């Protein structure tokens, strides 16, 4: 039993749990910083699945899955950096950094056109 | 690489990828000339694309493989990343190039300040290039990066207007995109865990209908449906599309959602086809019906022109989801679905850009006060009407041909289908008709004030590109009804068609 | 032995989940960010357990370090936006009701307790209970489905044998670097594009302002920077060079150099050079442009884009990694500083 629970088997389960936990945070929290953190935690869950798969069995770890994870981490930090910049931009415009649920103010009648 | 694939096609595939990356890179390095780089590069790339289509149609009948597959770096799959080029790829590249070129000529007059231009053009080219790279990619992980590139540039472009609605819409769009991409990536991870490869074609050879395939399909297709704004995952669309700069709205409604749909179709054709069950078909069809009705009703009551146009995109995506059951019922009918998406991509880009022109001219886009501008700007109204006619599916337009072919395919497949599917087919005929009716209503709502009596006021002068490009796109959509055969011929040469 | 390691794994995973939960449930944003950085460091340990030292290095440098720095500077900016008069002499202005999520009374009370002290807690309302169970059902159901799927999977070797079979022609001795810069170089090129695009996106949103006001730096930070800067540069260069045969590579090196730049901007915000925007633009793009330009050789000479000639593979990879490192570091610092240079709009 313990033999079958090598890290390569155990960690993907943890990755699945992290993904779901992040999703829960993304659904439930409204503040953008927390939502961005939630997306990052989901991403870490995916990376854990990849790295767990890479470490399965007795063979040396799979460098392809590890390289994909490295790429994924850099893509994630890029997306996060932009999301944070957008959050600050939104806060400058509205005074808060929260996305409230429900339809936005798209039905507002008049709006000066784009610059 | 198969010996029968000519070297010239292999070169052209690589060159298309290199140009799709090189142009945005050059524009980013030197934004002071980005507009020139973009217009010149896009025009040249269309010529290159047409030449490639010619080469492909010439070689395809003799090729022993359905697609040109190029292992980048000289490494074949599964070790390397593969570019995948077939009829479907070329059709999507063409749609992207046409909408992007029209959008570029439109944007020349729309984005005025030199400081704005320096920000706009590099991002605009990244959106075009990212979508090209997405369409060319034949590797599950590589697709994830291209999805992120396309969505990040789209979000930045939406936020570019800088007003509260636009930035809020962009934020929502970004979160949806990140969620969708991660869902896609997790699906890819599951597939890699089971099969040890990422190449779509190899995955297709290995995959059956086991639990991994089911879960991966749910995650990947679910993520893409979210990005494609298929009901009920459409909430973000109206804000993002309606508040973006007009050329960006056109690109989002015309091409970006179509690219997500393309990817759903590609994954389905190559990997997930064995999972097709009548229950899934009916579920997708019901989602499509709901989107069709809900989007149309929203379009009928929205107070602003660009929002009407954006909700029409929700409704049209519903149409496409309605077509999914056909893929399951009668897989050979899918070129019709792509034809439909192509015609609608052009028509929607025309409608959204036309709406942008009117908005710019009038200084606002309140439906109840647009009369004077509508009456004075016949050319743009004609573009809206022509694009709208294609969306409604009146005879002699691309939309009509597409709906006719769809109906024919549905009826044809129904004859020997299980009873549940037969019932579905009939419901489906009703939905297609109802959708056309609703589309007629909201298109009329857009253009009707032009025919009422009243004062005429052309408003602020707009550039020639802003007047002519919507018209050109709408004419293209309509012309597909008369000359759709070459596109159908191209689409027949696609991998995964049995 | 095995049981002890298993226990360690279980405790580590439980810790990760616990920290992630506390982070996402937090009502104090600063606390959430600190927990997130802790989470990143714990992840790095997990990656070591999964025999992935390269990823552990990247996670610590990029996932925890750079992301953490970006999060913290974002909190500073948000604080500044919501309370622009912070640091003024005299009584503080009344707390801005929009500063908290939905007028959270707790946060306002906290604001009022620290008048003008410069450490206004950034907080957000706890999530209302409505819809709690449906969210739990969705995410819990997803977790169970995922685990059930993973439990059915076989232990395939993945692509490890294929990589091992081609190592001798890859130009490097380290599997991950061979994958990143040779076998799947296209992914890496697009990833560089993604980093660049994040920078472009942030620039498109507006001009950069001065970094938010902060207490005058004491003697510690500049002194530490004077010591750390050379160390960081040496470490970065070492990581870059080591990537060909050991854990390391362009992204880790870029992150370390970027971190050095960020430290410098923190310690002496006004001494950072404001480079010519033209040079800056070329600098952030150069890594990807160079990569693509060298890759074009294979397009014309065959067999395909991004093919490295066997005997030149190692020097080419080293050149590309150097370019990538510099562009990444530059972009990371630019992202930390914020928007575009005002001189770009001139």
Key terms:
heterotrimer, A: 115 residues, mainly alpha, Helix Hairpins, disordered C terminus, B: 498 residues, two-stranded antiparallel sheet, 19 helices, 2 strands
Describe this structure in words.
The complex is a heterotrimer of chains A (115), B (498) and C (346). Chain A has one domain: Helix Hairpins (Orthogonal Bundle). In chain A, 67% of the residues lie in helices and 0% in strands. Helix content of chain B is 76%, strand content 2%. Chain C has a domain of 178 residues. Chain C has 12 helices and no strands. Chain C is globular and about 65 Å long. Chain C starts with a helix and ends in a 9-residue tail after the last helix. Chains in contact: A-B, A-C, B-C. The interface between A and C is large, with 79 and 98 residues.
Helicity level of chain B: over 70%
By secondary-structure content and strand pairing, the structural class of chain A works out as mainly alpha
Class of chain A in CATH? Mainly Alpha
Distance between the termini of chain A: 66 Å
User: How many β strands of chain A by DSSP?
Assistant: 0
* Tally of strands of chain B: 2
Give the CATH topology of chain A. Helix Hairpins
Name the biggest interface: A-C, 79 and 98 residues
CATH hierarchy: architecture of chain A: Orthogonal Bundle
Shape descriptor of chain B: globular
Mean pLDDT of chain B: 88
* Sheet with most strands of chain A: none
Roughly what is the average pLDDT of chain A, rounded to an integer?
Answer: 84
**Radius of gyration of CA atoms of chain B, rounded to a whole number:** 21 Å
The H/E string of chain A reads HHH
Strand order of the largest sheet of chain B: 1-2
- Shape, principal axes of CA atoms of chain A: elongated
Percent of sequence in beta strands of chain B = under 5%
Spans of chain A with pLDDT under 50 lasting ≥5 residues? 102-115
C-alpha end-to-end distance of chain B: 21 Å
């Amino acid at each position: 039993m313990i033999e079958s629970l090598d890290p390569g088997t155990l960690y993907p389960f943890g990755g699945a749990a992290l993904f779901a936990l992040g999703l829960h945070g993304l659904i439930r929290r409204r503040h953008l910083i927390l939502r961005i953190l939630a997306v990052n935690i989901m991403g870490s869950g995916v990376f854990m699945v990849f790295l767990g798969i890479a470490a399965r069995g007795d063979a040396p770890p799979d460098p392809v899955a590890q390289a994909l994870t490295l790429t994924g981490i850099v893509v994630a930090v890029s997306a996060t950096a932009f999301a944070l910049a957008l959050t600050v931009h939104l806060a400058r415009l509205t005074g808060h950094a929260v996305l409230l649920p429900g339809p936005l103010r798209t039905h507002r009648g008049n709006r000066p056109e784009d610059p | 690489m198969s010996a029968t694939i000519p070297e010239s096609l292999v070169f052209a595939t690589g060159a298309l990828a290199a140009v799709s990356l090189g142009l945005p890179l050059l524009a980013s390095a030197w934004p002071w000339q980005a507009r020139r780089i973009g217009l010149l590069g896009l025009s040249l790339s269309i010529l290159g694309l047409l030449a490639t289509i010619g080469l492909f149609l010439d070689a395809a009948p003799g090729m022993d493989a359905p697609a040109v597959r190029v292992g980048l770096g000289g490494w074949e799959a599964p070790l390397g990343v593969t570019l995948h080029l077939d009829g479907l790829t070329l059709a999507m590249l063409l749609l992207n190039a046409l909408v992007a070129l029209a959008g570029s000529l439109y944007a020349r007059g729309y984005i005025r300040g030199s400081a704005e231009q320096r920000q706009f053009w590099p991002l605009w080219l990244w959106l075009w290039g990212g979508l090209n790279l997405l369409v060319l990619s034949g590797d599950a992980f590589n697709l994830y990066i291209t999805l992120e590139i396309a969505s990040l540039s789209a979000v930045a472009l939406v936020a570019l207007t800088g007003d509260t609605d636009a930035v809020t819409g962009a934020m929502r769009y970004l979160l949806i995109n990140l969620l969708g991409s991660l869902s896609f990536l997790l699906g890819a991870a599951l597939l890699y865990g089971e099969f040890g490869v990422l190449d779509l074609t190899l995955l297709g050879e290995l995959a059956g209908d086991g639990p991994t395939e089911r879960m991966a399909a749910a995650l990947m297709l679910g993520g893409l449906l979210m990005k494609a704004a298929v009901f009920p995952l459409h909430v973000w669309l109206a804000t993002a599309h309606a508040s973006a700069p007009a050329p960006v709205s056109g690109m989002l409604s015309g091409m970006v959602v179509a690219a997500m749909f393309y990817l759903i179709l590609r994954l389905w054709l190559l990997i997930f086809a064995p999972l097709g069950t009548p229950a899934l078909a009916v579920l997708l069809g019901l989602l499509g019906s709901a989107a069709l009705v809900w989007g149309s009703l929203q379009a009928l009551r929205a107070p602003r022109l660009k929002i009407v146009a954006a909700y029409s995109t929700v409704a049209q995506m519903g149409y496409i989801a309605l077509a999914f059951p056909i893929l399951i019922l009668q897989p050979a009918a899918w070129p019709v679905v792509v034809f439909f998406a192509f015609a609608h991509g052009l028509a929607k880009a025309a409608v959204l850009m036309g709406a942008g022109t009117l908005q710019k001219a009038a200084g606002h886009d309140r439906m109840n006060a647009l009369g004077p501008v509508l009456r004075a700007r016949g050319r743009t109204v004609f573009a809206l009407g022509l694009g709208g006619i294609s969306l409604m599916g009146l005879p002699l337009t691309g939309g009509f041909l597409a709906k006719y072919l769809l109906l024919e395919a549905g009826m044809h497949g129904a004859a020997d289908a299980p009873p549940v599917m037969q019932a579905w087919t009939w419901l489906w005929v009703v939905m297609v008709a109802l959708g056309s009716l609703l589309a007629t209503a909201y298109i009329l709502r857009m253009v009707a004030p032009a025919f009422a009596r009243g004062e005429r006021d052309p408003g602020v002068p707009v550039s020639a590109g802003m007047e002519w490009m919507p018209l050109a796109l709408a004419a293209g959509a309509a012309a597909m009804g008369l000359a759709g055969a070459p596109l159908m011929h191209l689409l027949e040469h696609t991998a995964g068609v049995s | 032995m095995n049981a002890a390691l298993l226990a360690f794994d279980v405790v580590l995973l439980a810790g990760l989940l616990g920290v992630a939960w506390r982070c996402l449930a937090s009502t104090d944003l600063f606390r959430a960010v600190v927990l997130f950085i802790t989470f990143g460091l714990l992840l790095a340990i997990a990656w070591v357990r999964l025999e992935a030292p390269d990823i552990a290095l990247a996670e610590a440098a990029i996932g925890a370090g750079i992301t953490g720095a970006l999060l913290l500077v974002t909190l500073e900016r948000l604080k500044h936006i919501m309370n622009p008069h912070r640091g003024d002499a005299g009584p503080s202005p009344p707390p801005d009701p929009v500063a908290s999520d939905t007028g959270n009374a707790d946060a306002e009370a906290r604001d009022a307790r620290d008048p003008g002290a410069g450490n206004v807690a950034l907080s957000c309302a706890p999530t209302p209970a409505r819809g709690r169970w449906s969210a739990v059902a969705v995410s819990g159901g997803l977790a169970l489905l995922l685990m059930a799927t993973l439990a059915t999977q076989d232990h395939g070797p993945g692509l490890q044998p294929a990589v091992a079979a081609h190592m001798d022609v890859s130009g490097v001795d380290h599997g991950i670097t061979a994958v990143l810069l040779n076998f799947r170089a296209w992914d890496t090129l697009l990833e560089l594009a993604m980093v660049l695009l994040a920078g472009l996106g942030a620039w498109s949103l507006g001009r950069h302002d001065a970094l938010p006001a902060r207490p005058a730096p004491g003697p510690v930070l500049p002194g530490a920077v004077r010591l750390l800067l050379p160390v960081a540069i040496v470490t970065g260069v070492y990581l870059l060079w080591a990537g060909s045969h050991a854990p390391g590579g362009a992204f880790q090196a870029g992150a370390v150099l970027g971190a050095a730049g960020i430290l410098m901007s923190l310690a002496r915000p006004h001494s950072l050079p404001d480079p010519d925007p033209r040079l800056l633009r070329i600098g952030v793009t150069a890594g990807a442009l160079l990569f693509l330009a060298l890759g074009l050789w294979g397009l014309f000479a065959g067999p395909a884009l991004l093919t490295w000639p066997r005997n030149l593979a190692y020097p080419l990879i080293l050149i590309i990694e150097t370019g990538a490192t510099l562009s990444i570091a530059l972009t990371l610092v630019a992202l930390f500083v914020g928007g575009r240079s005002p001189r770009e709009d001139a």
